[in-house]
Amino acid sequence: MAGYVGIHTQISRNNRMSVLYLLAFPALVLGAVYAFLYFMSGNEEYAADISRVNEMFLVVAPWVAGIVLIWFLIAFTFHNRMIDAATGAKTLERKENMRVYNLVENLCMTEGMTMPKIHIIEDPGLNAFASGLSEKSYTVTLTRGIIDKLTDEELEGVIAHELMHIRNRDVRLLVITIIFVGIFSFVVQILFRNLLYGRGRSSNNKKDGRLIIIALIIAAVAYLLALMFKFGLSRKREYMADAGAADMTKNPQALASALRKVSGNHEISAVKNDEVKEMFIENRPDKSAGFMSALEGLFATHPPIEKRIKVLEEF
């Protein structure tokens, strides 16, 4: 597979990317705040006073940064519990499925990895994902459907794919992007609802409406930029995990076969959270779910599964 690099190179690259994303997203938040203060300070008669904008920004910025930091830390700390709550995942005990444990243990022993936790979602859909930020919390989650309907070789390929996400530190990087994109998505939705339903209650409709429109435009632009950051990361990490899994198992055809079975059968009825779906081995946004989902469909987090299968077959 063209473009595949060594595991240590990929880990180092993802560590650097984690730092860059941790800097880029807060910078984007603060940039959006500054833009709002700038446009808020001016009007049709005179341009904004830059010195006054700077003064307001220095007052507001620490509060905004503090709120974002608290939001980030809470989401970062409790993301595993949030994921389990959103998916209904439960611990898969060894005695319940020795087959899965043997496959995971054999791969981990071969690669010198610590055995992750194994969770199961009781759903006939075919899907899987990796989660966790440290060796104590690393988890591979499989659906009942993917366990029952794949052969040992195919399931081994899927598990190897998820283990590669853990080894490459993709999970941590994805959690960072999901949290920050979620912040922008939340702000856009709140502003949009205020614009639709809040203006009638305002004491100064014209001025308040103008401010909401400015804030909405700035937040939407920031949201689109954040999506582009995530888009640039997510597609590549799927190809990298496919390549790493093929190298780990020495059987790229098995993973290609697994993805062929997953294609069109990946939906999990109990999972409605779009951010959690982004962690799955396959995710196609539901265009009928509204404007936000349709927008994210333009920035799909996963490359077309047909292309992934084709690349694996040429490995």
Label this structure with key terms.
mainly alpha, 315 residues, elongated, 4 strands, 68% helix, four-stranded mixed sheet
Unreliable stretches = 287-294
Strand order of the largest sheet: 1-2-4-3
Structure classification: mainly alpha
Helix content: 55-70%
Biggest sheet details: 4 strands, mixed
Number of domains: 1
- Mean pLDDT, to the nearest integer, reads 80
Strand coverage percent: 5-15%
Radius of gyration over alpha carbons?
22 Å
Give, in order, the helices and strands.
Answer: HHEHEEEHHHHHHHH
Helix run count: 11
Shape: elongated
Distance between the termini: 5 Å
The total strand number stands at 4
Tell me about this structure.
With 315 residues, this protein is mainly α. It has one domain (7-89, 167-313). It contains 11 helices and 4 strands; from the N terminus they run H-H-E-H-E-E-E-H-H-H-H-H-H-H-H. The chain has a 4-stranded mixed sheet, sandwiched between helices. Helix 5 (152-167) crosses helix 7 and helix 8 (252-262) runs antiparallel to helix 11. The radius of gyration is 22 Å and the shape is elongated. The termini are close together.
In summary, what is this structure?
It is built from 11 helices and 4 strands, in the order H-H-E-H-E-E-E-H-H-H-H-H-H-H-H. The chain has helices at residues 7-41, 50-87, 98-111, 144-149, 152-167, 170-197, 205-249, 252-262, 274-277, 291-297, 305-313, and strands spanning 90-91, 117-121, 128-131, 139-143.
